[in-house]
């Protein structure tokens, strides 16, 4: 799945990905010897051409010939509940609720990182009425690919970056900050942050069937850290979590009761057997396999997280946890194997894609499936998703950083280990912004994705059968 969890023909994808891992390793070796990027690239759906939206005539994306798209759910547009659409569209997922196609979409809004009374995006049931993040729910007409109605579904949270779907029909939205009641003063700039009525840095569950904001419940046992994404194992109920920090950890949450996350559980972080504090960020070999153990976090909700974003990870590090570089996108296949991206990992800092393969309850192995040898191949992978009934892995890029020339793409990793380009951001107004929240409709006919700072969601369709590797 996406930011998140694989759907569709996952058994096929799992086998194909093993082939991709081996093949990509060979191609990476050939590239290092020759410097020939063409060895790592696939034709895909063809050349990318700047394309205007079907419904408004605006030009945001370059797409292959024959593909079309609508822009929906734009920032500041009035929603069905009378509220303005919040900005900073990020992680999202599609759900089938009865006969309706629904999207739950995150909004990575900080609100200035200081409390501002009355900034909550909903009309009630706020977690913290001084925080401006949350989620919106979009009900989509599957034929026209337009919004039928939309509304706020989580209010009063902060910097809701990613998350993931549950097998029981809900979305877990994650806060990418640990700001809270303590006032922080930056020693260099004197800038103040914090001072909120409530602590932040939690996960919140949003039912896909909800038609309004329900009372938000922070899932405190799942940890208070700089959350990014989650993926839930349908068979065991285990929740895997990523942390967008450097260094960061890869976590799992073992709930006391399946499907009842608010009832608590045990939070653990990944460590490498016989190699305490193993650093995965550089010096790794494509295709490597490491034996894994899990370290229990004694206090998943420490008060010191108010001023120390790494308060949870440091507990794990003290017991030998492995370090990663900015873990973001996360997904899980039918066999219960989570895949996750290290956005700035690798020797070129262009990104890594990892996979954890469980073996029983507490043992398993960590595999480096892909490390980008050059930013022209893949640069800072973030959200990932699989198109249903295919083995094509769609990868969002998040290379919108000061001093870097942004060429953000939506890429595709093929079973042969090649990368193809599917979309490029050509927005004149927001040329540097990232792709976020990629996810297909359950039938695989429509790809939904965001340009974050543009505050726009796109519905993309075309002939998906014409891919060439």
Describe it:
It is a single chain. The chain has one domain: 6 Propeller (Neuraminidase), CATH 2.120.10.30. The protein has helices at 10-34, 311-318, and strands at 48-52, 59-64, 68-72, 89-97, 100-107, 133-141, 146-157, 160-165, 170-175, 183-185, 192-194, 203-207, 227-232, 239-243, 251-255, 265-272, 289-296, 327-332, 338-342, 352-359, 363-371, 381-386, 393-397, 409-413, 419-425, 435-440, 447-451, 456-461. The strands form six sheets. The chain has a nine-stranded antiparallel sheet. Strands 1-2-25-24-23-22 form a six-stranded antiparallel sheet, with no helix packed on it. The chain is globular. With 469 residues, the chain is mainly beta. Helix content is 7%, strand content 38%. The chain contains two helices and 28 strands.
Number of helices: 2
How much helix, percentage-wise, in residues? under 10%
Q: Which overall shape is indicated by the principal axes computed on the Cα atoms?
A: globular
Q: How many individual domains?
A: 1
This entry's quaternary arrangement is single chain
> Which class do the helix and strand fractions yield?
mainly beta
CATH class: Mainly Beta
The CATH topology assignment is Neuraminidase
- Tell me the CATH superfamily: TolB, C-terminal domain
Q: Report strand order across the widest sheet.
A: 13-14-15-16-17-21-20-19-18
Distance between the termini: 21 Å
* Number of β-strand runs: 28
Low-confidence stretches: 1-15
CATH architecture, by name, is 6 Propeller
What radius of gyration results from the CA coordinates? 21 Å
Kindly report the average pLDDT value.
91
């Amino acid at each position: 799945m996406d930011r998140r969890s694989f759907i569709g023909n996952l058994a096929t994808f799992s086998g194909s990905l093993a082939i991709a891992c081996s093949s990509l390793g060979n191609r990476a070796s050939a590239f290092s010897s020759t410097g020939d990027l063409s060895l790592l690239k696939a034709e895909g759906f063809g050349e990318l051409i700047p394309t205007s939206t079907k419904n408004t005539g605006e030009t945001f994306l370059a797409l292959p010939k024959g593909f079309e798209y609508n822009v929906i759910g734009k920032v500041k547009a009035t929603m069905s509940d009378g509220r303005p659409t919040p900005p900073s569209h990020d992680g999202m997922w599609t759900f089938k609720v009865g006969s309706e196609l629904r999207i739950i979409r995150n909004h990575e809004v900080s609100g200035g990182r200081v409390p501002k009374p009355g900034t909550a995006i909903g009309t009630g049931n706020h977690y913290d009425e001084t925080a401006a993040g949350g989620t919106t729910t979009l009900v989509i007409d599957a034929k026209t690919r337009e919004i039928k109605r939309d509304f706020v579904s989580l209010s009063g949270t902060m910097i809701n970056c990613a998350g993931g779907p549950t097998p029981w029909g809900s979305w877990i939205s994650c806060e990418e900050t640990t700001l809270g009641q303590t006032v922080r003063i930056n020693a260099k700039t004197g800038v103040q942050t914090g001072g909120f009525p409530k602590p932040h840095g939690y996960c919140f569950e949003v039912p896909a069937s909800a038609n309004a904001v329900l009372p938000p419940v922070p899932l405190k046992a799942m940890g208070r850290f700089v959350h990014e994404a989650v993926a839930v194992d349908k068979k065991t109920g285990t929740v895997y979590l990523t942390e967008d920090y450097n260094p960061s950890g890869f976590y799992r949450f073992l709930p006391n009761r399946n499907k009842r996350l608010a009832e608590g559980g045990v939070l653990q972080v990944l460590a490498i057997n016989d190699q305490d504090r193993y650093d995965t960020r550089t010096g790794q070999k494509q295709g490597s396999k490491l034996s894994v153990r899990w370290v229990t976090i004694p206090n998943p909700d420490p008060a010191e997280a108010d001023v120390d974003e790494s308060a949870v990870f440091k507990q794990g590090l003290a017991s030998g946890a492995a370090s990663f570089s900015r873990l973001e996108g996360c997904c899980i296949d039918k066999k219960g194997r989570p895949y996750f991206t290290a956005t700035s990992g690798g020797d070129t800092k262009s990104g890594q894609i990892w996979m954890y393969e469980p073996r029983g309850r507490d043992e398993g192995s960590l595999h480096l499936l892909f490390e980008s040898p050059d930013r022209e191949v893949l640069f800072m992978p973030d959200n990932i998703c699989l198109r249903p009934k295919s083995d094509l892995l769609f990868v969002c890029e998040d290379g919108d950083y000061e001093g870097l020339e942004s060429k953000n793409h939506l890429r595709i990793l093929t079973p042969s280990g090649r990368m193809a380009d599917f979309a490029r951001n050509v927005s004149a107004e927001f040329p540097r912004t990232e792709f976020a929240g990629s996810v297909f409709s359950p039938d695989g006919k429509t790809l939904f994705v965001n340009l974050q700072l543009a505050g726009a969601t796109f519905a993309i369709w075309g002939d998906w059968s014409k891919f060439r590797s």
